[in-house]
Task: structure prediction
Amino acid sequence: MTTSLDSPNQQSNIIPFVPTGHFYFTRGIQAFKKRRFDSAVKWLKKAVEVDPDEPLYACQLSVIYTELGSYHAANQVLSDVLTKFGDDYIDCYYLMANNYAHLGLLNDAKKYAQIYLDHQEDGEFHEAAEQLISMLDSLDEGEDAEDEWAFDDEDDLLIYQETSFYHLEHEEWEEALAVLQEMMQMFPDFLLTKHKYAYALFMYGKEQEAIEYEQASLEQDPANIHSHVNLATFYLEQEREESAMPHIDRLRNVFPMHDQQKLSVAETLARAGHYTEAVERFRMLKGNQVTKRRVYYKWYSIASYHTGNPSKALNLWEQGVQSFPKLGREGGPWNIK
Result:
């Protein structure tokens, strides 16, 4: 005796489920809201593949790429949307401008922000585009480009900055922590202090506390360059290369506008052994506020040595030792890998 399911003449009541673009898009948005960005990318890519004529899916994919720091990938997606759908999606121009700004391609950033404003007099990103252009103009004039620590007309903050900076540069961790703690109380909106504090905390020996501190910061802001720099540095110091890799990979796709951030990324890439990329980043640094730093001399020298330029490496190391005698105790760039 056969059951109804076994009967060849019995039609199945099972309706096959065929996922739509909207299904994948919804899953992608859910993952995005939970900050599961890698999963979000996979779902959104599938949505675009299933329904390539829905530009919303591609635009959302570009937003996730931006969150991940994959600015080139984001702009490629946005460029494809503009090519296919034309000026019906003007917001793409602003999003591209923002990505170019993060990459340090300031002329392109200004160009696309202006295109957006020319097309959208009262668009959603109108004010943001104007602010971006204003900021880029100020960078062209040299305002605020040298050091993101600077705040005009705040003498107390400047004194604290210079004091903490001195202790950090001379590896006086306990003294640096005391000053940075006061800074966080007096200037709670000055967020960079918290990352300098975490760095000093780790170097002082409270490694796990520093790691947990930055992990919590990263949960609040997954794109924060300083958190990725610190965590990459911490894990490399602990010889936990596998834990460091996601943060290093993120930084390899980031091209900041500010010299302080540029230096931090270059230093981290050198620590990770990406010497060729590190040298390229160091070459982009021009401001005296960063090219006179101990880490600039040390890690640019190391990266230069490991990319076949020993004479430049030695010259940089000797300059560094003149300003920071403690550096001489480390032997030379050939002693550090």
Summary: Confidence is low (pLDDT under 50) at residues 1-8, 142-154.
